[in-house]
Each structure stands twice: as C-alpha cells, then as structure tokens.
C-alpha cells in the first residue's frame, strides 16, 4: 500500500520566538534555517516581515533551498482593501515561497480583538488568500483559537476554515492556540472539519499546556490532517509548541504512522536529529534537556545495576527503538548506584579493558562513590572520569605538580579615570623538580588562571599548544553557606576539533574551576602520549 | 451521575530515584513524602526495603498518615518458598501498608532475565500476592514490560495479569516499561485486558520516551484503568515517568475526566500544586522547568505586545484554565519585544503607578532593551527590575558609591603544611562624602565580597543587618572568549523571610556577582525606607 505524504511545517523562527528569553538575531535565524534544512522539514516559517526590523531583514532574501520559505502575517484589516493594507503589502514584498496568514476563527475574538463583524473577517480571509496566490505565493491560513472557537460557535469556525479552503489556501491549519484541548476533542473536531475541508488540506498546530502537544498532533494526523506544525525542541510561548524532535522519530519509526505515512525526512536526517537538537540548544544557549524523548543524553540511559546487567545481555528488549537510528547512544550510567557491570561497560566504552575480578575495580568504585557524595558527577565529564580510572590503574604520570596559585580581581579607576576590572593570576608549578611561576591577565579569574597555567609547562608545552577552553558551566549544588560549586569545562583541540569535558567541585568557585582546568591539561597531555 | 474514583499512585521515591543524578537520602525521602501528603495522593511508594540501607532505614517506620505507604520489591524467586526468600521477608518486615511487587509479564524476560519457566513465574506472582495479604498488606502487582509482552505473547501477558488478580492483588498495574507504546495501542490493549481483570483493578504506569506518558495515562483511564502511577515533575529513568503535576490538574479541571472521575486531591491540594512542584525541585536541587504545564513560571506567560493588550481585555479567552486554580499566576513578560502594555502591567504588579503617557516610560523601555541586549534578563530578577524602574522615575537615592573593590583567591600551603584556599575581599565605598574601607575573608570570592560590602555601611548598617544571601546562580551566555556571565542572587530578610532576586552581567564573573550584590543591598535599603 502506498503511503500518504505528511508535511512538516517548522515554526521555530516565528512561534518559537515567543518563548520567554528568546530573541533571535538575523544571523541566528540564518543558522537555525540551515539546521532545519539539514533536518529536511517541508516548510520553514521565518517570522513576520514588516513587524520588526529583524524579520524584515531576514526576508530580504530567500533563506532556504529545499524547504518552502514561509512568511507569517495577519489577514487583511477589515474595512480596507488588500492594496491599501501596509501589513499585507509588506508580506507580499517579502522573499518568500509561501505566506501563512493568521486568521481569527473564534467569533468572540473577531468581535473583541479585531472589533469587526463575522462577515468582514471572512472577507479578510478570502481576499488575503487570493492576494497571496496572485503574487505567486503558496497561501496557508492558521485558524487561530480554532478548537475553542469551534466549541463556542461550530458553524462560524467551520465557515472560516471553508472560506480559506475555497479561496485557494493550500493548507488550513487548525490551531489550539491556548493549548488546553484534549486528544479526544482534537480527534472529534478534526473529523468534523472534514465535512468542509479535505484532510489533505488540513494542518494541526498544537501547544503543550497540558503536556499533550505531541499526542494532539498525532491524533489529528490519525483523524486526517496531513500537515503538522511544530518547533525544534518544542520551544514556544508558555509551555511550548509541539516538539518536532519528538514527533519526527515517532512518525518515522512507530506504527501506525510509519506504515500509513511518508515524511520528507531521510534516514540520514533522522540520524542527524540528536545532533541538530543539541546544536539548536547551543545556538540559543540553553542546556539541552537530558531527558528529552529520543534526543536527550539520558533517553537511552540506564542507572540501576540490576537492569544494567540484563540490558547488556539483550539491549533491544530494554529499548523502544535502536538509539543509533536517531543518532543517540546507549548509556549505562556511572553513578552512586553503580554496580560493577555499569562500571565495566563505561570503561570499555572509553577503551579501558580490565578484568572483572581485578581488585582495583573495587577501589575505583569506592573513589567514584566518595567523589559523587562530594558533588562530582562523571556522567557529563568523560575526561575526568577517564583520568580517575587510569589513575587507579596507575596509568597517569604526574606531569606537573601545582604548588600554589593566586588570582586577583580588582575593580578600580585607571590612570585616565575609567572604571576598569582587571583579573590577574599567578600559578606556581613543579616540573621535573624545577619550579616555574607564570603570571597572566584575563577577562575574568578563570580565564586568567587558564592562561597562566598553560603559559609555561616546560617540555610539555608543545603538547598543549593546540588546546583551548571553549565552554564553562557553573552549578551551585546547595544554597546558602554550605554552597558547593560544580564547574564543568569543555576543551577542544584546535586542529582535530576533538572535545573533552572535565569537572571540579569545591566550596570555592575559583578552586573548582582550577581543578577542572588541571584535569583538562592533564587529559590533553595523556592523549598526546606526553 | 456519580463519578468513579480514580486512584493516584506516586512513585517519585522509587522509580523517580532511577533518574540520573538523583539519589535520595532518608531525610530527603521524608521531606518528599511530606510534600506528597500535602498534595494528597493515594499511594506513596517509598522504595525497595532490603535492597539498600537508605530504603531499609526509610521503611523502619511508617512515613505517611493519609496515603498508603507502599514498599516495592520483586516477586518471590523461582524454586524457593516465600519463607525462604530473604527479599520477600525483607518486604514483609517493612512498616508498609501496601506492597507493590514487580513481576515479569513478557515471556522473553521470564526466560532470559529470570531464567525460569512461564509456569514458575505465575507461581511466584501468586505466592507473593498471597504472602502480602496474609501479612496484612495490600498487594499490588506491577506487570513489567506488559505492553511489549502483550505484543510478543498476548496469552502469557494476560495470564500474568489474571494470576495477580485471582491471587487477590488489589491492583494489577500495566507497565510500559520501555516507554515506546503509542496511545492507540494502550487503548486497545487496556480494553482487551478487561477480559481477565476488571478496570477497577487496573493501573497504568507510563514512561515518556515518545513524549506521551501523560496522554498514555489518560487514554488508559478512558479505556477503563482506575489507577495512575506517576512522579512529581515527571522525574524518572531515561525520559521520565508520567508527570503527576501535569496529570492532576487535567484530571480535575478538564472534561471528560473531571466529569466521569473523582480523585483524592482537594481543591486546596490543587491550588498547592505549583508550590509543591517548586519545593520538590528545590529539594532535589534542580532548576524548575519554567515551561512545565500548569506549574511552570511561564505556563501562563505572554510575551507578544499584540497578545498582551488583548489578554488584558479578557484574560480568560487566552488561558485554558484560570492560573489561580493551580496556584500559578498570569505573567506579562518584560522583554525585548515588550510594548508599553506589558511594561505598565509589570509596573502595576510591583506597585508602581505611572501614567501611560509619561515620557519616562519610553526611557525605561529603552533601558530595558539595551540591558537585555547585553544579557540582562529581568524576568527572574524582580528586585533589579524594580530598581531600574524606580531609578528612571527618580525614586532611588544614592545610598553609597563603590569606589573600588579587590578580591583575591589563593591556594597555598599554610604554616602547618596543609593545602588551603583563602578568599579575601576589600571594598571601598563613599557614604555621605566619607570613604570607608572594609576587608573580609569568605568561603569563596563572592562570599568574601558580600561580607566586605555589608560590613560597614555607616548609618545604613541597621537596615541591612537582617539580610542574607541564600542562593547564587551562574549562567554563561556565550561560550569561548566572548563569554558573558549572568549571575542571579537570591537574598532574604531573616526576620520576615521575604526574598528578592537581583542580577548582574559582565564578562567577568566576579564583576557580575558584585553588581548583583550591590543591587541586593540597595533594594534592601529602599524597602527599609532608608
């Protein structure tokens, strides 16, 4: 049986921009559009040209090659013609393949928000759709508040949908704008709407206010919709939009969807989805949700010792899909609950072979438990974990010995009367019995320490010349006076782009940072075979 | 029509403990059990007595008054009697009202993980349930891997469920252990199971691996299940368990659930759910998910200027439920996209009345936009926002003027040869034309600066004596050399327990912290009417 085509419409750059704390620049929008192209969605909604300078600039040229580049805007204002409506003219001037008009479909909002009549609103829908078609753009209509509108006045909500369809809209999108509709209602209403618009012209736009945006999208598809609107990682106003990074794997890997429908994403695109999800978080500077379905670092992670050993026997019976299909991987967590099975598995993963009966394993387990009790967490600090393990196995030379460090941050007026902040660090290390002192200034105390530490490591200098600190994360583990600070540092080799993560924990943030810096340098030396 | 009773079973302390990075102490378990009692769930599953010292100690006494205190454990081992199975005996000795046995119901796992026969597994289920009943405990059976087991061998999965029911289990819980089952399958399978177990004896235990744990739980209830298992904030292994903080409001506020079912949570419990959710995050030291359904800080937040003004006209048409019913509130975000409506609304909320036409509003909007472009975010820093606004309105006196500060962190060997880290800060301020210098040591640089800054503020000293810094959060906004650090400080008045949040942003972490400290002290002085 041939599968029907399901279209994916991404609105990360438009509805996703409503997320609190998010405000994309033009460059960020370009970078995100590239990610969406890599993924392979059918539509990229880029914003609202004419509404603000960023979106106008973004629509000065077409930003996608494969996906339909889509501009968003309001339908024509009541009481004026399309050619006299600057909003519509701005939309038509945008370099877009498609235009998605948002239209009121709840009679209450027509009256209160638009302050016009039901009939005028239908005219606005019709004229806007026709104007887009005449300008050679594919028209879509987002029926705002459709489900609430349907429950308040079914006939009028259906009239809006029909008007859009009959005027020539390629898609009539049913929006659960307030996000409170239950899956059962979505199914019933989508079925009913098909009395006026065929399912192959219907889209669903769901919000996650009850934690069911994904389920509502799938139920709408089961009921006949053939377009889903959503965002990367489910960002969006309030509780977010339908999460495309959850929906896409389900649509491609799970019955009945995979059997009845075809999407425009390739298997390569699917394998890239974890990387795309993380790259997007990096762009918007959010910590990735480790518990995210399919793409989260813990989506295929097992902690319990008892499960872990069974899992290693026959992993596929403990995993709902093979992690590799979505570019993720199985993780058996090294944790306070860790048994030897977990530990052995992690050691194998980083290339350390130890016999199960080796007594040093017990010592290592004790080390890990003690350090986790202090606040260390090796789940995200592979390099520090490897150092800890190899130290127990006697495989890490003492390259250098830090005798002391000192860092000073001073805010004062400089000679010409400007207020400046200066950070200066001094590090004293012993190498091969010889003491070396280095001093450096930096943007902040950690930067100064990093530069001073790596300034003169004698015969090891060449082995660390190519490394750089690329990210730095701080987490306060307890509040108040007992606060313990955990610092995670990401480093990279400039030549190979290989990255590694190290950790430090202390009541003192500078101390914690310095520990992570020392681990990072030591790891680089170890890998360089120094 | 009388509504049927639906039971809520919380497994935060047992399955929630499988979350990576979470490992509850006995004290934490006690505090969380208290939260669950406040909420009003029917069952509190506390852990696995006998499996580890923490859980054994936790079950040394009964920890709940209203909820059934439930111990979790495996069914009897094959080939030995109940009285010869130390695991079962440990369970029976626990001070519990109920025992929840986990039983295999997938024949594959019976063979591979238990290494026994299908018939022996049924015997284990039966004997375990009977032993619990005879010991005066209410027996429950979690059918592990039920949905995958059903799809592999329907007859055997049903035989396990039937065996548990016929042996006298109060609940037979269908577990989607791997979390990959779709709502449509859940519905079909739950309906079929009722050929052997009545719905009023069936529970559902869903995981969120496809983002549908909430939807799967609801669909199971529609199909007849009368118990839902879940966790606070949806914590749990991999992608987490069904989120009770999302499910409870939906069950109580949304048709058809609210019409057909009754839960044991009161309206007061429901109004407490946002506070309970946040208190739980605080206990486990996680940042609350601001986008969480119902309870997230942004669950009822609006950003767009255009929406905001309509929202203020008739809020209920933009909100799927009244935020107060779940103890949350409407938020109109001050943000880069802010229009005057948003800003006025926020000013009113913090008690500042300004005329819409006041030209200082435009200046304030510009201030906010400029600062947000630098990395400030006032959404979580009310006190800094209030200071910014009142400064524009000329209402904040210059209490003190910081001329300079200096902080030093040194790690070295002390006189008796111990490696110590010392943090020392010097702060120089002008007050009423007089210069004061203070010096202090602290646990870390920020602590030292905090103490030094508040050590001698002259005539203002009494107004700040009661304040203390209680939390400190650090976020790095860009990676690499352009890194900007945002520091958020939470302060409190020891007497009134009133808390306030201030923010600082700088390329230098110490600088950013100092800004937030100065705002915090200034805010305290302003509120004290100094």
From TrEMBL, chains A, B:
SMART domains: LeuA_dimer. It comes from the Bacteria. Residues 6-271 form the Pyruvate carboxyltransferase domain. Gene3D superfamilies: 1.10.238.260, 3.30.160.270, Aldolase class I. Keywords: Amino-acid biosynthesis, Branched-chain amino acid biosynthesis, Isoleucine biosynthesis, Transferase. GO terms for biological process: isoleucine biosynthetic process; L-leucine biosynthetic process. It is an enzyme of class 2 (transferase). Pathway: Amino-acid biosynthesis; L-isoleucine biosynthesis; 2-oxobutanoate from pyruvate: step 1/3. Coiled coil: none annotated. Its EC number is 2.3.3.21. The keyword Metal-binding does not apply. Pfam families: HCS_D2, HMGL-like, LeuA_dimer. It catalyses: pyruvate + acetyl-CoA + H2O = (3R)-citramalate + CoA + H(+). InterPro entries: 2-isopropylmalate_synth_dimer (IPR013709), AIPM/Hcit_synth_CS (IPR002034), Aldolase_TIM (IPR013785), Citramal_synthase (IPR005675), LeuA/HCS_post-cat (IPR054691), LeuA_allosteric_dom_sf (IPR036230), PYR_CT (IPR000891). One of its GO terms (molecular function) is 2-isopropylmalate synthase activity. PANTHER family: (R)-CITRAMALATE SYNTHASE, ALPHA-IPM SYNTHASE/HOMOCITRATE SYNTHASE. Belongs to the alpha-IPM synthase/homocitrate synthase family. This is Citramalate synthase. It comes from Stappia sediminis.
């Amino acid at each position: 049986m041939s599968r029907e085509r399901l279209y994916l419409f991404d609105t990360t750059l438009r509805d996703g921009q409503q997320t609190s704390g998010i405000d994309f620049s033009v460059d960020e929008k370009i970078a995100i559009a590239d990610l969406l192209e890599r993924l392979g969605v059918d539509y990229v909604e880029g914003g609202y040209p004419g509404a603000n300078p960023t979106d106008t600039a973004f629509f000065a040229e077409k930003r996608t090659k494969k996906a339909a580049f889509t501009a968003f805007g309001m339908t024509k204002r009541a009481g004026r013609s399309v050619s006299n409506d600057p909003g519509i003219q701005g939309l038509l001037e945008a370099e877009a393949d498609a235009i998605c008009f948002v239209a009121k479909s709840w009679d209450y909002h027509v009256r209160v928000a638009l302050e016009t009549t039901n009939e005028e609103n239908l005219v606005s829908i019709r004229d806007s759709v026709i104007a887009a078609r005449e300008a050679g753009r594919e028209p879509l209509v987002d029926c705002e508040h459709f489900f609430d509108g349907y429950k308040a006045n079914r006939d009028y909500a259906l009239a809006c949908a029909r008007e859009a369809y009959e005027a020539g809209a390629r898609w009539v999108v049913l929006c659960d704008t307030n996000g409170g509709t239950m899956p059962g209602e979505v199914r019933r209403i989508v079925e009913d709407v098909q009395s006026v618009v065929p399912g192959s012209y219907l889209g669903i736009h769901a919000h996650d206010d009850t934690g069911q945006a994904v389920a509502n999208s799938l139920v709408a598809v089961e009921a006949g919709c053939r377009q889903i609107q959503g965002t990367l990682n489910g960002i969006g106003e309030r509780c977010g939009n339908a999460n495309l990074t959850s929906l896409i794997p389900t649509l491609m890997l799970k019955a009945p969807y995979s059997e009845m429908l075809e999407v425009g994403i390739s298997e390569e695109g699917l394998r890239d989805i974890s990387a795309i999800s993380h790259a997007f978080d990096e762009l918007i500077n959010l910590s990735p949700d480790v518990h995210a379905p399919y793409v989260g670092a813990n989506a295929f992670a097992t902690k319990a010792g008892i499960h872990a050993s069974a899992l290693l026997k026959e992993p596929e019976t403990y995993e709902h899909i093979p992690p590799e299909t979505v570019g993720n991987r199985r993780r058996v967590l090294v944790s306070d609950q860790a048994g030897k099975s977990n530990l052995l598995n992690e050691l194998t993963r980083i290339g350390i072979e130890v016999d199960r009966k080796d007594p040093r394993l017990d010592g290592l387990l004790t080390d890990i438990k003690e350090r986790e009790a202090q606040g260390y967490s090796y789940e995200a600090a592979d390099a520090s974990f490897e150092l800890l393990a190899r130290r127990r196995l006697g495989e890490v030379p003492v390259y250098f010995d830090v005798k002391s460090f000192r860092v000073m941050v001073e805010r004062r007026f400089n000679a010409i009367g400007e207020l400046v902040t200066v950070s200066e660090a001094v590090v004293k290390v012993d190498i091969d019995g010889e003491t070396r002192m280095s001093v450096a200034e930096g943007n902040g105390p950690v930067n100064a320490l990093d530069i001073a530490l790596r300034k003169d490591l004698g015969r090891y200098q060449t082995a660390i010349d190519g490394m750089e600190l690329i990210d730095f994360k701080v987490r306060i583990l307890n509040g108040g006076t007992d606060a313990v600070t955990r610092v995670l540092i990401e480093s990279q080799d400039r030549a190979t782009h290989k990255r590694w993560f190290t950790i430090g924990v202390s009541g003192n943030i500078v101390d914690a940072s310095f520990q992570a810096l020392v681990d990072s340098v030591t790891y680089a030396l170890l890998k360089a075979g120094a």
